[in-house]
Amino acid sequence: MIKNPNHPQKNSTIKVEPIRDVRDIRAIKKMLADNPRNLCLFVLGINTNLRASNLLNLTAGQVRHCNAGDEITLKEKKTGKPRRITLNKSSIATIKELLASTPLPDNSPLFFSQRGEVLTVPSVNRLVKSWCQAINLKGNYGSHTLRKTFGYHQRIQLNTSIPELMVMFNHSNQKQTLDYLCIQPDEIRSAYMKLEL
Length: 197
What we know:
Elements: H1 22-31, H2 36-47, H3 52-56, H4 60-63, E1 71-75, E2 82-86, H5 89-101, H6 121-134, H7 144-156, H8 162-169, H9 174-181, H10 184-194
Antiparallel strand pairs: 1-2
Helix pairs in contact: 2-5, 2-7, 8-9
């Protein structure tokens, strides 16, 4: 068996980053404006805490009649636990645009490849990397970037508490959430700089 040289070593981890700057998010959205599938995938990914595997399990029927503020319930692929997600205006707008451009039956997955197959997590990983490269974003990005971007902006822009984010992400402890968000070193540095005794 040929080993992939890019595959991480056993017990090692590769961390992907959130998209920190709102201007970069806007640039990707603008770039994807003519591709309803990719725009919907990106917008849903950064506006919910869903893993790529859960995004790809969404069906047209689950979201077709949703309005802003509506909740959908799905079973998390990784944990098997039920998860309730509230859809915001941005998510609904891109869902409606996708469904208008691609008529899909209710039981059909929402996201298909160009060959008509259901998208896979590795495909989403490649897409996210390509979008970030296209706008010259430096760093390591992948499918998990979408979910991390949601959490990062929940914390930085909206000051959502770590315990709330821990519940949103279904993490077992606050340290896991802090590590996940890639902001703890910045927050610690900022705390040192704020105190002048």
